[in-house]
Amino acid sequence: MEGLSYVSEVPFVVVDLVNLRSVDVDVDDGSAWVEAGATIGELQYRIAEKSRALGFPMATCHTVGVAGYFSGGGHGPVCRKYGLAADNIIDARLIDANGEILDRKSMGEDLFWAIRGGGGGSFGIVLDWKIKLVPVPSTVTVFTLTKTSEQNATKLIHQWQYVAPNLPQDLSILLTISGDGNGSIQATFIGLFLGRVDNLVSLMAERFPRLGLVKQDCTEMSWIQSVAYLAQLPQGPVEILLDRNASVKSYFKVKSDYVNQPIPEFVFKEMGRWFEDEEGRNATISFVPYGGRMDEIPESETPFPHRAGNLYIIRYVTAEVGEISDFQKYINWTRRLYRYMTPYVSKSPREAYINYRDLDIGVNDEDKTSYDQASTWGFKYFKNNFEKLVKVKSLVDPENFFKHEQSIPSI
Fold first, then answer.
1. Residue 356 among the catalytic residues
2. Taking phi first (over 0 means left), then psi (-120 to 50 degrees means alpha), and beta for anything else, what does residue 216 get?
3. 140-171 core/surface letters (b: 16 or more CB in 10 A; e: else)
4. 317, 252 in Cβ contact below 8 A?
5. Structural domain boundaries, residue 317
6. Which listed residue (229, 330, 338, 356) is catalytic?
7. CATH of the domain at 298
8. CB atoms within 10 A of CB 138
9. pTM of the shown model
10. What is the pLDDT of residues 358-398, one digit of tens each?
């Protein structure tokens, strides 16, 4: 998210893993080895080639590389059912700072713990991952509903906070807020149900009747088709998931927040003015609900600590397609919105998601040690797991060979 592989103030090396992209699926064992250069789309497609009954909990953007996604934890539409991607990793092969190739047994459980959510670029180079596949039904149901302010968008957003984290684990409703071009907001609800349409409509009538979902709003499809659907790809041959260029390139800035208590309705109503600004015309605020399986896994199980108590995560995105002369004002717009949201999100620490890397939450104080500087963002990303990550880093890479602006420090 911050382009840490592209620029640096000091000489640096990038190891390009793009050609390590094979996926070896073992249907009988319910597992797969996936090389670090594969994308989410490639992984899902290769699994579906072998079985319509197996899948993997992944994000919606199909061009994201699996290694970065796994290393930060990796949440997505079915994390309420199956947990994170990192919760379903059972082995890995890593090159450490001494140039040795280690698997789970030889690297030890502490290092294996650290690479499943501790962020990329700190502990070594993961060559490939062994993942536990999850069962998926032959038919799933999806829907997309957009509501305007005239259709009570703000009331629906407010109610979504109470409904979405407490739904049965088979149903996730993602939410995106954007401007309607007239100083108000519109809300887009995107649902994925691991079941048939009739059961979904009945469930929604019981749990979220105000949204007004009807059968005609829904589409039944296979699991792999839903992967393409959630990636907002054209409906057609799922081979498009193999296309690494099938997404719009833009300049963007991302920040994140976690929410522990429902946000008052007036906050969403006031968001309309933010989207009136030039910098807000292509901006979005996205919400992914937690709860379900995410509540059941202890904070210390992996470095990713954002478990029970979190209703959902917010992702703020400011974007602009095409050449622009001054993107700094777009970045500043996102920072102002982030400050505005301060009273309504998690505190002590104000939590953030490592896969939505944000250099704004670091510090640059020459009088502080590298550990003190790192602790500023470290506790936001990892909470109390940060201390263990530092201990693991200090043991496996004491010379701090693997480093970047927000890598885990050695002490």
1. yes
2. alpha
3. bbbbbbebebeebbbbbbbbbbebbbebebbb
4. yes
5. 140-354
6. 356
7. 3.40.462.20
8. 9
9. 0.95
10. 999 976 555 555 778 789 899 999 999 999 999 999 999 99
